[in-house]
């Protein structure tokens, strides 16, 4: 039987760039002690109080169909949180509850793009971005944010690609680079969106993990509230990755149509999870800061280890739960270096090439293991890099 080209071509063909990750998991399963610095999964579970709220909601019988666009209480809490954090007036009618940020990305691109439209996104990128765009029938077009600009996108280069496109997807703080986009960068990107009538799709799931500077949502910029769709989630802010609970915030008309899509796809999110999300948001910014704190501390630990040497150079890690490391001085690609580190020291990091072309010659380390284990792994990474550039000794 014939399969649809859309589903067959979802990944674009070829390697998905995650060979190191798969190999590390296979070595782990074979009994090797692997330090996994690959994916953005907290090293703590969801807080017991949130799980208790989920359990209580389940036992209270909140197990049937829920409102397809999200229960009112959760949409009210998200709207209040967004208003407080960004200064942009937001009502429950601006909020669609979705099963995680990934579903939000899919839904937002469905709202922005018709079949065959061009959808722009920034390279380096989170691994699912191009496949998400292909999944809605649009054509992904990456614009490189270069290391010599500290991975800040160049609005002029985005403008060159903008004619005929329908949307621009950004992510700040950024995965994989840890870069927090500046006001200058965001103003320039907003200018491009206004000039070329683009939707801005802003992935802001790391908005509570900002170490340097401020988080600025493009929705707050002049003329952008009516053309911006913001993706949010409790995965990173509340260590609720497996609960699959997130939202899209945007203009009321767009949210109404996206709610129709939810009716015909996800059919809503489990009510007991939404009740737990309400409880989680009620814990306030202090709780979110507690979840975020280890990643800032570990960021500082890594930067401290890198001082006094110039073989491995960090990209300014201003947010998120990762540090991107420039290992081009070793002469190896990011993938070759990551494989060598895995084989020699059983430390798994992601090659920069896993996230597009712009980060070739880099590796990404997730700050997702306890401090002493992270320090040992980074020392082994530095030892491996130094061995590749040090003169041979007899």
Describe the fold and architecture.
This protein is α/β, with parallel strands linked by helices. It folds into 2 domains: 5-45 and 286-386, Aspartate Aminotransferase, domain 1 (Alpha-Beta Complex); 66-283, Aspartate Aminotransferase, domain 2 (3-Layer(aba) Sandwich), CATH 3.40.640.10. It has 13 helices and 12 strands. The chain has a 7-stranded mixed beta sheet, sandwiched between helices. Strands 1-11-12-10-9 form a 5-stranded mixed beta sheet. Helix 5 crosses helix 6 (129-135), helix 5 (101-112) crosses helix 9 and helix 7 runs parallel beside helix 8 (183-196). The protein starts with a helix and ends in a 5-residue tail after the last helix. It catalyses: L-aspartate + 2-oxoglutarate = oxaloacetate + L-glutamate. Residues 33-380 form the Aminotransferase class I/classII large domain. InterPro entries: Aminotransferase_I/II_large, AspAT/PAT-like, NHTrfase_class1_PyrdxlP-BS, PyrdxlP-dep_Trfase, PyrdxlP-dep_Trfase_major. Keywords: Aminotransferase, Pyridoxal phosphate, Transferase. It is an enzyme of class 2 (transferase).
């Amino acid at each position: 039987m014939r399969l649809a080209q859309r589903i067959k071509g979802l990944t674009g063909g070829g390697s998905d760039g995650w060979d190191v990750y798969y190999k590390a998991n296979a070595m782990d399963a074979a009994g090797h002690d692997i330090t996994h610095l690959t994916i953005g999964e907290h090293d703590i579970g969801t807080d017991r109080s949130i799980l208790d709220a989920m359990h209580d909601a389940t036992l209270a019988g909140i197990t049937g169909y829920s409102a397809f666009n999200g229960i009112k209480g959760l949409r009210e809490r998200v709207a209040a949180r967004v208003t407080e954090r960004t200064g942009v007036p937001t009502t429950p009618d601006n909020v669609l509850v979705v099963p995680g940020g990934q579903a939000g990305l899919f839904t937002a691109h469905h709202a922005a793009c018709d079949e065959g439209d061009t959808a722009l996104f920034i390279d380096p990128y989170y691994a699912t971005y191009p496949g998400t765009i292909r999944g809605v029938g649009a054509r992904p077009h990456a614009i490189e944010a270069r290391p010599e600009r500290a991975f800040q996108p160049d609005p002029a280069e985005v403008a060159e690609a903008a004619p005929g496109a329908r949307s621009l997807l950004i992510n700040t703080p950024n995965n994989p680079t840890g870069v927090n986009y500046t006001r200058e960068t965001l103003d320039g990107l907003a200018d491009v969106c206004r000039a070329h009538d683009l939707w801005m799709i802003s992935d802001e799931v790391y908005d509570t993990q900002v170490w340097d500077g401020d988080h600025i949502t493009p929705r707050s910029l002049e003329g952008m509230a009516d053309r911006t769709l913001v993706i949010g989630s409790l995965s990173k802010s509340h260590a609720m990755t497996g609960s699959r609970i997130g939202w899209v915030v945007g203009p009321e008309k767009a949210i109404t149509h996206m709610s129709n899509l939810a009716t015909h796809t996800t059919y809503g999110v489990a009510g007991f999870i939404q009740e737990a999300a309400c409880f989680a948001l009620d814990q306030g910014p202090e709780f979110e800061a507690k979840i975020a704190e280890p990643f800032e501390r570990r960021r500082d630990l890594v930067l401290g280890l890198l001082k006094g040497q110039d073989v491995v150079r960090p990209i300014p890690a201003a947010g998120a739960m990762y540090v991107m490391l420039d290992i081009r001085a070793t002469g190896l690609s990011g993938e070759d270096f990551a494989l060598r580190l895995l084989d020699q020291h059983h430390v798994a990091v992601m090659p920069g090439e896993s996230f597009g072309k712009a980060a070739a010659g880099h590796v990404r380390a997730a700050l997702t293991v306890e401090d002493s284990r992270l320090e040992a792994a980074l020392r082994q990474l530095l030892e491996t890099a130094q061995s590749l550039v040090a003169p041979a000794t007899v």
